[in-house]
């Protein structure tokens, strides 16, 4: 997508999905690329995929729910020679997490397939990302093996749609990998569409993780 | 009494003491002899307190259940107290100062020391003082961990020891890692 210039989205509805698809496509090229997102409703956004950084003038909290009409420009850049060194670049994880939240709220990422298994490749930098306890639990679960969205939901005590959205966002960040061939489900789920013993309890606060978080949060007040 | 021991390890000025103070406030933290008393109360045998101070904080999760966080200097790893705490630890939050002369070398020494805990999901690397460098390459830290633990994914987060929310996130990730690993091993 947008490999030789620009892609324009006239609808404005799927703007963030277009941006997400362009990021995924460019990442697969495995060559240094700079993306420039030009929109009718926000200042230009630059994403340097070679160094995993972005620049956007406003604070990330001002990222609009829809970018409106959007055009994504892509251009190869020289390895080891990052563009615009005078600009205050920021780590890309928080931006991609937020783009993913907006892009995949009602639709799957187009490159993700139901039934495929995914495992964590690296932890996203959660200290810089607005997250929920449920998301931490799912990411931790993915560190232990290749799982479908359904299995991830069962193990983490979440519904499948929520697990899908987390997988989509992690994929956009390049934080998960796909199983390259047939992989047996982990014995802990056994491939059955049934609740995993203990998962719901842990999700509802019986586990150390939930109690630790609740207790510390309680002390903040 | 059920206890969950979490160690904060790192070189001098990596942010351990600040993190304890941020998490627990001055009332909950102590150093030196009082830390030794707390460790003995947790079941450690009577031993001479080593010369190095140990900051600590504790939190009651439920009646009869405590979380205890000890900040131990990496240079004290041969001390008897240090070894006791390591054996009892549920997890380790290893702080590495980004502006250290050789942060990856510092990380390597931590990796060797806590390999057994890492296999239980109990190791998290917190990169501190990121505002003192132009850019933090987290992938270099992740690569060092992947080389030592192939197939495992160790959390690497940037952590500001003055930021309570970030510290709670780090401890939450550590607890979730251990719990999810146990889930797969049950």
Task: Based on the model shown, name its key terms.
heterodimer, A: 221 residues, alpha+beta, Arc Repressor Mutant, subunit A, 6-stranded antiparallel beta sheet, two-stranded antiparallel sheet, globular, B: 186 residues, alpha/beta, 6-stranded mixed beta sheet, 7 helices, 6 strands
Task: Explain what the structure shows.
The complex is a heterodimer of chains A (221) and B (186). In chain A, 33% of the residues lie in helices and 15% in strands. Chain A has seven helices and eight strands; from the N terminus they run βαβββββαβαααβαα. Chain A has helices at residues 15-28, 93-103, 133-142, 149-156, 160-172, 199-203, 208-220, and strands spanning 6-9, 33-39, 45-48, 53-55, 70-76, 90-91, 118-120, 176-178. A six-stranded antiparallel sheet of chain A has the order 1-5-2-3-4-6, with helices on one face. The longest helix of chain A has 14 residues, at 15-28. The radius of gyration of chain A is 19 Å and the shape is globular. Chain A starts with 5 loop residues before the first strand and ends with a helix. Chain B has a six-stranded mixed sheet with strand order 2-3-1-4-5-6, sandwiched between helices. The relative contact order of chain B is 0.18. Chain A binds chain B through residues 51-53, 89, 91, 120-123, 125-128, 131, 133, 136-137, 139-141, 143-145, 155, 186, 188, 196, 198-199, 202, 207-209, 211-213, 215-217, 219-220, and chain B through 4, 23, 59, 61-62, 67, 121, 135-136, 138-139, 142, 152-160, 163-164, 166, 168-173, 175-181, 183-184, 186.
